[in-house]
Give the backbone structure.
Amino acid sequence: MTDLSDITTALISGDGDKVCRLVQKALDQGAPAADILNTGLIAGMDIVGEKMQSGDMFIPEVLMSAKTMNTAVEILKPFLSAEDMSSAGHIVIGTVKGDLHDIGKNLVSMMVESAGFKVTDLGVDVSPEAFVKAVQENKADIVALSALLTTTMPMMQQTIHALVESGLRDKVKIIIGGAPVNQEFADRIGADGYASDAGSASRLAKQLQG
Ligand code: B1M
């Protein structure tokens, strides 16, 4: 019987071939797909997030693990029920209007997806109106705003203002991040949380979902 902790270890190492082989083997041996996902893979991404935060893993390694996770989830998908797949909630994510930086935002997107969230990624240069529309259409639980420029930080506040104006503010949690922002700024503009890196963003999202 495949030991699911072997999957966790291989995922942390970013060894895509090994993870895919072990996931397939576990399925062939009758392990439930949800167990492989939760005990093998999501547990691994939680450790990746912790290692990233403590400086024991760097961005290229985190990307390898995240890509491996996505490939493994593709193998599992046909065996997972809708319930298994949608347990964590729906996140709408984007880089705010005027800002074209997307590497950090993509990392956050991959980490929260790996943690079991359904993700709608709006890309870069996203207007407040586009965030509002996506939150509405997807009945999102969380909206995640990224900004890398001091000049685009005010756009986060404008996006929150647009959510208030549209009557959606109380229905969605708002998290923000990006190099120039911090907890103090998040408190000032009325966000529900701030995360300094992708691992913390994933943990924060889970925490906000209770
Ligand atoms: Co630009 N850029 N850039 N840039 N760029 C910075 C941000 C800058 C700090 C460089 C510098 O001057 N030292 C500076 C900003 C200065 C400031 O405002 N304080 C800057 C500037 C000025 C500009 C331009 C204005 C340059 C110009 O044209 N004169 C221009 C602006 C264009 C625009 O956006 N309108 C510009 C353009 C670009 C490129 C297009 C060339 C390119 C972006 C390519 C891309 O993203 N596809 C680029 C890059 C690569 C950078 C640097 C070098 C690297 C950014 C990066 O990807 N870091 C950057 C300098 C630097 O940071 N050292 C710089 C790696 C990434 C993983 O980290 O994005 O911080 P980061 O994400 C982290 C956390 O912040 C957090 O998690 C991530 C990882 O754990 N995080 C979140 C991010 N979003 C989050 C959301 C969350 C939670 C956490 O919850 C929702």
Q: What stands out?
A: The chain has two domains: 5-79, 90-209. Residues 59, 98-105, 107-108, 144-146, 148-151, 175-180, 195, 197-198, 201 surround CO-5-methoxybenzimidazolylcobamide (CB under 6 Å).
